[in-house]
Amino acid sequence: MGFQYAERVKSELIIAAKMIERLGELTGDESKGASKLFFFFLTALEGEINIAYNVLERTEFESAAVKVKEAAEKVNLSQYDEAMQLLSEAISHVASTGQWAMQTLKNHNLL
């Protein structure tokens, strides 16, 4: 389960990082609307990460959720570079959990 959660959350974080790259290219009302929707996406993603944390109790998920929440706050301030950095840090936290899960599967000859 840990491997599945880590891979799913990591994929969603990578999608978020790709989306944020495009936010900085938008202007005016387009930028405002996209930022608002992206904020909602990040809030939903934070919820998904918290579910993973509640199931697995891996602190890396908790740390990633904090980074995503901070990234959402940066998006509200149109600070996209800072938000991107926070998302990168969240990806790193989740990747660490994924590595742990993969090693556990290998140790039990399941992978």
Task: Describe what you observe in this structure.
With 111 residues, the chain is mainly α. It has a single domain (2-107), classed as Up-down Bundle (Four Helix Bundle (Hemerythrin (Met), subunit A)), CATH 1.20.120. Helix content is 87%, strand content 0%. The chain has helices at residues 2-23, 28-56, 59-76, 80-107. α1 runs antiparallel to α2 (28-56) and α3 (59-76) runs antiparallel to α4. The radius of gyration is 15 Å and the shape is elongated. The mean pLDDT is 90.
Poorly predicted segments: none
| Helical run tally | 4
CATH class: Mainly Alpha
* Structure class: mainly alpha
Categorize the overall geometry: elongated
Distance between the termini: 13 Å
CATH architecture assignment? Up-down Bundle
Write the layout of secondary structure elements.
Blueprint (H helix, E strand, L loop, with lengths): L1 H22 L4 H29 L2 H18 L3 H28 L4
